[in-house]
């Protein structure tokens, strides 16, 4: 899920880990490609264990406290550019062109799950439409 954090301005979509760490071990090819200097992952200490004699194929056991502290937490950025044509003959004031962000003032029950900033409440169920 990680990526190099170079030329972020010129990318459209960015998937990045919030706390990228330096690697413990590296291969010769990663050193030749200078990947050691660009921290782009998490160091996870793992233990291979057999539980009650059963095989744990294709499974991952994670510590809940590590996840709560932010292990493998990622950020997603999406940038876009928009252009508007300004017509000087139109006598609209600049206050009408301002965008209002936040919870809309309406009696629609679909917006009851939004807080004052316009974001949904934590653990609220959201539906499309």
UniProtKB/TrEMBL annotation:
Entry EC no(s): 2.7.7.6
One Gene Ontology cellular component annotation held by this UniProt entry: DNA-directed RNA polymerase complex
Family the UniProt entry places it in: Belongs to the RNA polymerase beta chain family.
GO BP terms in the entry: DNA-templated transcription
GO molecular function: DNA binding; DNA-directed RNA polymerase activity; ribonucleoside binding
Keyword Magnesium: no
Residue ranges of domain DNA-directed RNA polymerase subunit 2 hybrid-binding in the record: 26-127
Record-linked Pfam families: RNA_pol_Rpb2_6
Protein name: DNA-directed RNA polymerase
Region: Disordered, residue numbers: 82-111
Keywords: DNA-directed RNA polymerase, Nucleotidyltransferase, Transcription, Transferase
Record keyword Transcription present: yes
């Amino acid at each position: 899920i990680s990526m190099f954090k170079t030329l972020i301005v010129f990318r459209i979509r960015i998937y990045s880990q919030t706390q990228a760490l330096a690697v413990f071990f590296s291969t010769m090819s990663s050193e030749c490609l200078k990947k050691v200097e660009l921290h782009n992952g998490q160091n996870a200490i793992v233990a291979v264990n057999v539980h009650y004699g059963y095989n744990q194929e294709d499974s991952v056991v994670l510590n809940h406290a590590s996840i709560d502290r932010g292990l493998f937490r990622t950020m997603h950025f999406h940038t876009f550019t928009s252009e508007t044509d300004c017509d000087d003959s139109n006598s609209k004031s600049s206050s009408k062109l301002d965008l209002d962000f936040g919870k809309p003032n309406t009696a629609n029950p679909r917006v009851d799950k939004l807080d004052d900033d316009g974001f949904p409440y934590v653990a609220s169920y959201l539906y499309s439409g």
